[in-house]
Each structure stands twice: as C-alpha cells, then as structure tokens.
Design brief:
- This protein is α/β, with parallel strands linked by helices.
- It is built from twelve helices and 19 strands.
- Strand 8 and strand 9 form a beta hairpin.
- It holds the Pfam family AAA_25.
- It comes from Variovorax soli.
- InterPro entries: AAA+_ATPase (IPR003593), P-loop_NTPase (IPR027417).
C-alpha cells in the first residue's frame, strides 16, 4: 500500500468518527473547543479605566490622595455621574473595605464631599467567625463577603484598601501573591463588579516604568488587568501638581490621564473632608507623565545626576544630544534629564545654524574649545568648526578604531588662539533655553 493510500485510509476513518463534544475531559483536564465559545466584549464601568469583572490596581506614593481618588470614582458610580473624560455610568452600589481609614470620620465624609449617594455606599465593618465578631480579613472572609453582596442585590465597584491585606503569605513572593489574589479575581468575575485594590510605590526607582514600582511582588501588577498610578509632579511653573494616569492595561489603551487637585470642603456643617477636583486631560505614558517629587528632591547622588555629571566631565562644550543619550538609553525621560542638568547648574549654548545645543559643567573656562565631538558640529555641513582634532586626538582615534570601540571619545582641548586650535574665534550663541525647555536636550 502506498503512502497516498495510507493517508486516504486515515482521512476516511477520521471522517467516520462522531463529532467531539464542546467539552472533552481526558484524565480530568477540561478542554473547550473555540468554535463552541461565544465571544464577549469587555464590559466597562468606566470605559478604559474600570472594567467590570476584573481586578484593577491604583498605586502611588503616600500623600498623593489614592484613597480620595478611589472614593471620587465610587461617588460617581453611586449617582450615575460623570467621569473626568465626560463618560457616564448607571447608578450602582459600591462596597468599601479599608484597613487604614475610619469609616465615620474619613471615608464617608469624603464620599459625601464628592457628592455620593450614601444609600448606595456600603462598608465592610467586621466578620462573624464561630459566633464571634472579629475584624474582617479579606484573605479569610471572601466567601462570606459574596453572600453579603448578594443580600444587597449586587455591587458595581469594590474597593480594597490596601490590597496587600488580601495576602496572608509573603507579599514579595510571586506564587503566594498570585494564589492569594485569585479569590479577589474570582469575586470580581462572579459579581461582575470592578474590583479596585489600592497599593503603594516602593522607594526610589526613578526612571522606571511606574508599574514596576508597585510595592511587593510583581504579581500584584501582573494579575491586575488595569494599573492606575497617582503622583505629584512639577508643573510648568515649577509648582507641585498631581497626575492620575494609566500605567498598564491588558484590555485597552495604556496611556493618558488627568490632572487632579485635592481640596478641603465641608461635607456637613463642622465636618471637614478632602475631595478631588479634576483638571485637564494629559497625554503620554505614565513614565513620561509622572515625575515623583521624592525623586526630584534627591541630592546630587541620584542616578540621573551622576550619569550626566560623568558625561560632562572634562573641559569644553559637549554635544547635548550625545551627552544625554546614555541617560535616555537607561530609561530616563527628557524631563528627568532636564531636572538633573538644573541640579548641576549646567551651562547651555546654542551652536551655529543647523547645529544643536551644547552643554558644559559650571566653572569651566570659556577659553576651551568643544569636547566630545560625537554628533557635534565637526564635519557638519556649514559648520564653523573644522578639523578639531590634533595629532594627539588622531592617535587616540586610531587606537579607538583598532579596538573597534563604538563609544564616543572625548578629544583634547586647546585654548582658542593657541597652536593647534582652528576655532576661528567663533563662540556658540548664548542660551535662550528657559526652565522646562527640554528641546534643548
């Protein structure tokens, strides 16, 4: 029998078999055929930000108003109000568990200040274990919580503050965190509610993706379908501002955000509370938008400052494009690089027409010519600087070529007018860069 005959016989036998059911259970493993699955769209409580039936995360440094932000969203849900992007939702119940704030003097006043309907606001007070009232433990009492949710005819939003309280084991171990968060994920799916966990940022981490700064195991951000972040930033006029941004989303856009402000008001006569006042929308990734004041307030030992100092070490002017490239490669944003240059009091000058900016450390004598010619004016069309390197620099260049090094070199420097200098006494233009003008990078 030929190969073709064997193949034909196999096809005939397979076609004669009865069709497989949608669910196949070989050795206890359940398989489901794709053709038997009905496609479902993502349901949103707040489109792009709070998906129904999913676990989300809101993280930030202490003092950024994370809980107040969460309560602002909760208040909007209770009245079917308007979110900062103009979208709306139907009125629904919200359930809040907080292990950090008191209900009567903090949480409810903030909700009332934000315009919430108290009739739709529910709080987890305690749990009943063996006929004894004990503090609620999310890691232990989620099944009982589901029964309580069903008794109030469902919820649209559940806030868990802090989300780490749902983890009984080591919050820095990936496996333990994933196992502990699974009940919350299941609760979201069963109730079709958006579950919002609140967390903190770890210290440091400037230049990193904000999602990677969520404290504890990376599993917190990995399990969450949407990660939102809040931070203080430096505004255009140098004043502190606040940004609420989307840092990660597995089910939609993962950028953009809104300015927000925290203001004090009277929730009731004699009852002071904070609330969120939404500002303008902002564009860009969370990494670009968030510049933590704690990061900006660090001394000259910060990574960005030290890296820039190393690139500008030496006498003369350095191409800003070349000097800042290693910092960009390390993940620092233009805003962070500009802040680092301000900390170092970097001097800036504009090259001739069609030439970029040049930087140098303060206190360097202006009688020295340009350094670090990689990407600089040397050899550019119309450049007023020609043949900058001396014989010594040529030897250095030959040595560099022989080692096949691709690192930019720093060339010798010659006082203008001295032998070996061909600067032609042309100085770069005085800087017109203003604070915050990152185009000078």
């Amino acid at each position: 029998m030929s190969v073709a005959d064997i193949q034909a016989e196999l096809r005939a036998r397979m076609e004669s078999l009865p069709p497989l059911p949608a669910y196949v259970e070989p050795l206890g493993v359940v398989l489901e055929r794709g053709s038997e699955i009905t496609l479902q769209p993502i349901e949103w409580l707040w489109h792009g930000w709070l998906p129904r039936g999913k676990l989300c995360l809101l993280a930030g440094q202490p003092g950024t108003g994370k809980t107040t932000l969460a309560l602002a969203m909760a208040a909007t849900v209770t009245i079917g109000g308007r979110f900062p992007d103009g979208s709306t939702c139907k009125p629904g119940n919200v359930l809040i568990w907080s292990g950090e704030d008191d209900i009567a003097d903090t949480l409810l006043p903030r909700l009332v200040a934000a315009g919430a309907d108290p009739e739709r606001c529910y709080f987890v007070r305690s749990a009943l274990v063996d006929s004894e009232i004990v503090p609620f433990d999310p890691a232990r009492d989620l099944l009982e919580l589901l029964s309580a949710i069903q008794s109030i005819k469902g919820i649209d939003l559940l806030i868990v503050d802090p989300v780490v309280s749902a983890v009984t084991g080591d919050s820095h171990k990936n496996t333990e965190v994933r196992r502990a968060l699974q009940p919350l994920v299941d609760l979201a799916a069963v109730t079709n509610a958006a579950v919002l966990g609140i967390s903190h940022f770890s210290k440091g981490g400037q230049g990193q993706d904000p999602t990677q700064r969520v404290i504890g195991s990376v599993a917190f951000a990995a399990v969450a379908r949407v990660v939102m972040v809040a931070a203080k930033v430096k505004g255009e006029e140098g004043k502190d501002a606040r940004i609420f941004a989307r840092s990660k989303s597995n089910i939609g856009a993962d950028d953009g955000g809104f300015e927000y402000f925290l203001e004090q008001t009277e929730a009731r006569p004699g009852i002071e509370a904070s609330r969120v006042a939404w500002g303008d929308p902002v564009q860009g990734s969370a990494r670009e938008l968030l510049t933590d004041p704690a990061d900006e307030a660090e001394d000259a030992g910060s990574d960005a400052v030290e890296m820039l100092r190393a690139e500008l070490t030496g006498q003369g002017w350095f191409s800003a494009k070349t000097a800042t490239q290693p910092l960009k490669d390390a993940g620092f944003t233009k805003k962070q690089i500009w802040a680092a240059s301000n900390k170092l009091n970097v001097s800036r000058k504009k090259g001739a027409m069609n030439e970029g900016w040049y930087w140098r450390m303060p206190g360097v004598e202006s009688a020295f010519t340009w350094g670090n010619t990689e990407g600089s004016v040397e050899g550019s069309e119309g450049s007023t600087f020609r043949n900058l390197e001396s014989s010594e620099s040529s030897e250095s260049s030959e040595s560099s070529e022989s080692s096949e090094s691709s690192e930019p070199s720093k060339v010798p420097f010659h006082p203008e007018g001295s032998e070996g200098s061909i600067n032609e006494n042309v100085e770069p233009l005085e800087s017109s860069a203003q604070p915050g003008d990152v185009e000078a990078i």
